[in-house]
DNA sequence: CTCTCCATGTAAATGGTTACATGATTCA
DNA sequence: TGAATCATGTAACCATTTACATGGAGAG
């Protein structure tokens, strides 16, 4: 059975549903809101946008600027929207976490506990910051509407739902990192007093 | 500043901290407990194990079997443990989610809402099953000890902590998938009655 | 008699990261 | 004067996935 591939394509197309954007702008968007479900560096986006253009899924128009480098603004085409529609029809492969830091925690017994606890604290802070950033994006989307009303009626329901997932993920990440750091530090202390 | 790479290596080494295993067994382990922080298909593991052996980070012994194909059991070497220790010292790059299904939800407006809701329900079930599986692994690890005691004293603290993260992740995944499916289905119904 | 499990690999293709390249503008 | 922002790309490299390949044992 066919399973969907090439999600960078579709993540890029999806980001263009909000309107035209340059590769540079998309890179920024990928850094904040798209980061909830996909990650890509600018180089990837420039390549992918050109491929999408060649395939007729996006259209570009050149914008000449005086004090800034010229840029190309991309718009999703009807064919691009269709491609997203088809993408939604084919089943996805299940997602998985791939996290260096969790590998380290798994292997904690083979390394320095204090160092690891330090990195966990840092990560907790980052995750907390990220969750607040997303929180801001969510209330910006929602405006004065209640969440229930927004979810029932707003055309921006897609970004809102992915934002909710991202916010929870980052919050839980922060909680867990803090817990793990505490556990490891307590153990590091226990080991050093025992000697 | 150097940032750690090649986590498959370290995930493999970490999995061998529990004792010797064959490539086939490791593939199983990767499917369940290691899946909380890394994913790999068997082919990758066979390759990686051979590379680790060539680098002296694991040792292999051949086990000849009568009714089963012969196998090779791998053990982590002191050099392998050192490699894990160094891995823990170098900072990790921040992790990110990469999920096809979230891309689809972001792009919901361009596709069929009922189809997407259906896939979200399926995913909710899978996530719930996975969370219960992990829950079982955790109580197996814990045995009769309280969680606090286990976290303070057990040598298996690494796997336990990653299990906690995985369990929360899957639980939150199930909750979110169910919520998103509900939202999208309600909207699908609203659209069809309006016509 | 078919399916799943055991058990290990090679080869080709795709996807993703890192390094390199350029250059003006604005802000501290 | 140095760093950050705007703006786009190429090339080399590394990691990951998919397809292909083999074959006996045991369960239903």
Supply database-style keywords.
DNA-binding; 7% strand; homodimer; elongated; mainly alpha; 8 helices; 3-stranded antiparallel sheet; 195 residues; 3 strands
Give a quick summary of the entry.
Chain A is mainly alpha-helical.
Identify the overall geometry of chain A. Answer: elongated
Q: What quaternary form is this?
A: homodimer
Distance between the termini of chain A: 59 Å
What characterizes the major β-sheet of chain A?
3 strands, antiparallel
Mean pLDDT score of chain A = 94
Helix content of chain A: 55-70%
Provide the β-strand percentage band of chain A.
5-15%
Determine Rg of chain A (CA atoms, Å): 21 Å
Strand count of chain A: 3
If interface size is counted as residues with C-beta under 8 Å from the partner's C-beta, which chains form the largest one? Answer: A-B, 69 and 69 residues
Helix-strand category of chain A: mainly alpha
Spans of at least 5 consecutive residues with low confidence of chain A: none
* Succession of helices and strands of chain A: HEHHEEHHHHH
Count of DSSP helices of chain A?
8
Biggest sheet: strand arrangement of chain A:
1-3-2
Walk me through what this model shows.
The structure is a homodimer of 195-residue chains. With 195 residues, chain A is mainly alpha-helical. The first copy, chain A, has eight helices and three strands. Chain A has helices at 7-15, 23-31, 42-54, 78-89, 100-106, 113-142, 147-153, 157-194, and strands spanning 21-22, 58-63, 71-76. A three-stranded antiparallel beta sheet of chain A has the order 1-3-2. In chain A, a hairpin with a 7-residue loop joins strand 2 and strand 3. In chain A, helix 2 (23-31) packs across helix 3 (42-54) and helix 6 packs antiparallel against helix 8 (157-194). The longest helix of chain A is centred in the C-terminal third of the chain and has 38 residues, at 157-194. The first copy, chain A, is elongated, with a radius of gyration of 21 Å. The N and C termini of chain A lie far apart (59 Å). In chain A, 40% of the residues are buried. The interface between A and B is large, with 69 and 69 residues. The structure holds a DNA duplex (28 and 28 nucleotides).
């Amino acid at each position: 059975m066919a399973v969907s591939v090439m999600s960078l394509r579709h993540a890029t197309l999806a980001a263009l549903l909000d309107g035209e954007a340059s590769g540079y702008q998309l890179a920024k968007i990928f850094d904040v809101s798209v980061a909830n479900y996909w990650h890509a560096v600018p180089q990837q986006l420039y390549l992918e946008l050109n491929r999408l253009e060649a395939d007729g899924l996006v259209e570009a128009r050149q914008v000449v600027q005086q004090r800034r480098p010229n840029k190309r603004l991309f718009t999703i085409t009807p064919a691009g929207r269709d491609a997203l529609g088809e993408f939604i029809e084919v089943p996805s492969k299940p997602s998985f976490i791939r996290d260096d830091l969790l590998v380290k925690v798994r292997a904690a017994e083979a390394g320095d506990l204090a160092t690891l606890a330090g990195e966990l604290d840092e990560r907790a802070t980052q995750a907390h910051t990220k969750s607040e950033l997303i929180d801001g994006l969510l209330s910006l989307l929602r405006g004065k509407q209640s969440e229930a009303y927004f979810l029932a009626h707003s055309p921006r329901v897609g970004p809102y739902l992915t934002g909710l997932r991202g916010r929870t993920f980052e919050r839980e990440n922060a909680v867990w990192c803090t817990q793990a750091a505490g556990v490891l530090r307590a153990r590091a202390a226990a080991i050093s007093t025992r000697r």
